[in-house]
Structures are given as C-alpha cells and as structure tokens.
C-alpha cells in the first residue's frame, strides 16, 4: 500500500496540539467516555469505534462543543470553552446534514464566516474561494433546501474550511457522496494533513479512514482502546500473529529459512504455493527481512501482508 | 517602480471592522421575517391604532371638539394616553412574537444548528443576546416605534401645545417600560422556544401563557376576587409599569408583587436557557 497523502508531514509548522487529559463524560447514569487521555498532532487521524462506543462524544469533547464531566481538553494548554477565541483555529464539520434550509449555500458560508469575526470584504472573498474549492460556485445561489445529500456534505465542509483553520474536525465527511466527490474529499483531506494541519476524521467506514490515514484512535465502550499507527498497533496484538505471504520461486528454501528465525512463530506453504509466515513482531520482521533475503540469496516476487489492515486491527481489538 | 509610474489608485480600506457575533445573529434573524409579505402586512396592521389615534388627534385640534366623540384615551396625548396605547398593542405583541420568537431556538435545536454556532468563537451570552435582539426589535416595532411616531406627530399637530412632555418625557418613559418589558418577554419566549423542538407546540405554550392566563384570570377574578389578576401574565407588565406613566394600578395587589413575579419569570427563563442550549446534536 502506498503511503496515504494524509500522513503527518515531517516539515509541519508548529500546529497547536490538542490534548485530552483523563477525560470522562457522563450523561445521567450513562458513561459515554471513560478516562481517556490522548494527544492529536499534525496530520490526519482517524477516530474509530462502533456505534455507541463514545466516538461522537469524544469527538465533541475534543472539539470543545461539550465540557467533560471530569478531566480537561486543552488546545495549546488552554481550555477551549473558556477561551472562545481559540475556536477561530478550529473547523468543525458536523455529522448531521440538517442545515438552515432557507439560506442559500453562499449565505450560509458567509454567515458562518461572519460569526468567525471576519469583515465584509474578507467574508465575500473567502466564501467564493470555499465554494470554488468544493465545486459549489454555481450552486452557491441556490437554497440549501434544494441541495442533494452530497452537496450538503460539501457545503458543511466549505464552512468548516473557509476560515483556514489549523485544527479540523470532520464527522463522517464522506456520508452520501458519490464516488467522484468521495475521491476529491479524500484527496482534500490528505492535502490538509500534508500542509501540517491537524485533521481528526470520525467514521465507521474503515476503508474511508484507511484511504486517508494510517494514524488512528480506536474507542470502545467509552474507553480508549488504541492510539497510533495501524501497523504499530497491529504489532502489539500478540494474540493474533501478523500473517505475511511471500511469493518466491524457491518457496521451500525460503520456508525452511524462515522457520528457523526467532521472529517467526509459524510457516506454511498455501495452495497457491506462497510462503505464509506468522510473526508476533511485524515491525522487526519487516526490518530484518531484506537482510535475510540478500544474505541468503532468497528471491521473492511479491510480498503481501494479510492482516495488518485497519479492518483486521479493528476486528482483533473490537470484534472478539 | 517609481511612485509616478504607479498611476492613480483609489484608496480603499482593506478590511471592514468585523461585527460582534450577537449582532451577526440578530441581523440575520431580523432580516429573515421581512422577506414575507404576510408578515409585513401584519406589521402595517399593527400600526393602525397609532394611525387612528394620530388621525383623531389631528381632527380634534383642527376641528375643535368634534373628535371628542371618540372620547377617552383615543384623544389623550398625555402619559396616561400613551400607556393605554401600549395596552391596545398587546394582542399585536402576542401575534408578532409568536411568529418571530417561537422558532428561534427550537429551529436551531431541531436542525442541529447549535453545534455549528458553538464551534465558533461565540458564547452562550452572545447567542442568547443575538436571539433576544430579534424579538426585542419586533416588540419595539409594534410598541415603541409607533409610539415615537405618535409622540412626534402629536407634538407637531398640536403646534407644541402638548409640550416637551409629549416630545421627550413620555417617549422616555415608554422607552424604559418597553425596554424592560421587552427584555423580560424576549427571555421568557426564548426559554419556551428552547424547551421544545416543534414550533406548533411552542406557539400553543406562548398563547396559553399570554392569552390563556389572561382569560383564566378573568374567570377567577369573578369567583375569587380581584387579587386573582396576579396569574394574568401580560397584566403584570402593565401593573408593574403603571407608575412610570402615572397611571392607575390595580387596587387588589401591589405593583411590587407584579415586579417580583416578572423578575421570577425572567430568572426562571435564564435558568432554562442555560440548561437547554447545548451544542449536542439531537439524535432522532
């Protein structure tokens, strides 16, 4: 898999980090988020969880929309709701596509920009730019009531991005979009991440997140289950060794060599003649493998990781 | 490039001063109902008592005592007459505020607009102040603004005989009264709006509070006595504000009781607003 466009940029400017310290949130008797601590840095990060896992509540806590019952959410060391000026650095795209139906797309984006504190000229310029960037310039004069689901999604993104925020919260941003728009938005999110902005994307559709980033936050039953790069998280799941399939003209010699390595816990040759190796330490395995192959003159034609996908990680951590 | 080669360029300010968020909300909310013709017609209609009173004043001073046939408050141009005019307007206040105010927060809650608002540099006070200004504007539109026009017209038509009291003091009294009553009424209506999602139910609640309490009080006054007027919601404003206009108060209970009741209603409304306005999406 090629590196996703949204991987954290190495030359990122000093984008403010968002941090949650032992955050909990109760709604009456129900605990929605339980003692979560995390830091979200520059780049794209996916927030994952089953329905009812506390994903939306954590999303709203991080975006400052609701206050935690316990703990703190800090942006640059300051509490968001106590210094509302910090919201100028935030862009928020809500999940719900209920919008003020009587406003035109242009009026809606302009209203949201005016609430950000921009003057008239700047509002006009930024509105047109945002509509243009999301291919809504022509539809900008139409009332939101007449917008399709995909267009609503885009106008929500337009209002979230028009003020060029440092930290962007996107709640299910690809809902209802056609394949072309979906691709455009995935690329857009990737570009935002590559610019060094902090983008937090919430979705329950794993391939969407996978297309945008390898960096995830996984929440389950209100608790933080995992945080970090998918491969690194996968590597730590020792109950399920990582499965790597290697195609080689010398499959038997390769299998016998790998069977003797400490990092490999099992080797077999499948029906297609590929060597299928299992390892508890995938990161070390990937690091050592090229050396082994060169030193022993073992040719390989193709290597495929069978289960360090986001889906596999999700299933292992949540589905069991 | 040398200055002389640059040519003339008209100076333009690069950035206008940004409006505060409460004003952005208020301006949008005030402009929206004005797009509807029926609503504009209602506003015009709400000015009819002022126009009629102005017409009677004109004929009284032009044609002697002929217009006295109208009698009573219609020809009075003193503070008491203005106070009566405000009382006449109370049904227009009921209707116009029901149209403008009942949906203000309910609609935002129903459409999950609160999350969009509060993801911006905006406090609860900004949000409530913006919404309150919308109601206040239309409250003034049917009470204070026609009253100003009437006071000025009365002063002019009587060639100054009505004195500065008509031109300055009475409008000032009315401004204080309408400012306080409008602020309290706006907060109470906003609280009602924040308590529901469907405008229909909130409108019913508003009508029951405003008109229902008056009708129930009318019945109970006959059975229990005059003190039962305390449950008449709009009457409390006039009872508490009567002293501003030197008008006669209801003898069965003190204006202070009305003032305290209104303070309690308003405080309860603030409490409801604080509790109900949350940027959490409503999951249906």
Can you characterise this structure?
The complex is a heterodimer of chains A (about 325) and B (about 280). By secondary structure, chain A is α/β, with parallel strands linked by helices. Chain A folds into two domains: about 10-230, P-loop containing nucleotide triphosphate hydrolases (Rossmann fold), CATH 3.40.50.300; about 235-320, Alpha-Beta Plaits, CATH 3.30.70.920. Chain A has helices at about 55-60, 105-115, 120-135, 150-160, 180-195, 205-210, 230-235, 250-260, 280-295, 310-320; strands spanning about 20-25, 30-40, 45-50, 70-75, 80, 90-95, 165-170, 200, 215-220, 225-230, 240-245, 265-270, 275-280, 300-305. Chain A has a six-stranded mixed β-sheet, sandwiched between helices. In chain A, strands 2-1-4-5 form a four-stranded antiparallel β-sheet, with helices on one face. In chain A, a hairpin with a 2-residue loop joins strand 1 and strand 2 (about 30-40). Chain A is elongated, with a radius of gyration of 23 Å. Chain B has one domain (about 20-275). Chain B has 13 helices and no strands. By secondary structure, chain B is mainly α. The interface between A and B is medium-sized, with 35 and 29 residues.
Strands ordered across the widest β-sheet of chain A:
6-7-8-3-9-10
Overall 3D shape of chain B: globular
The count of helical stretches of chain B stands at 13
Helical proportion of chain A?
25-40%
**Secondary structure tally, helices of chain A:** 10
CATH class of the largest domain in chain A: Alpha Beta
Measured by residues with Cβ under 8 Å of the partner chain's Cβ, the largest interface is: A-B, 35 and 29 residues
Number of strands of chain A: 14
Structural class of chain A: alpha/beta
Radius of gyration of chain B: 23 Å
Shape summary of chain A: elongated
Characteristics:
heterodimer; A: 320 residues; alpha/beta; Alpha-Beta Plaits; 2 domains; six-stranded mixed β-sheet; four-stranded antiparallel β-sheet; 10 helices; 26% strand; B: 284 residues; 13 helices; 70% helix; 0% strand
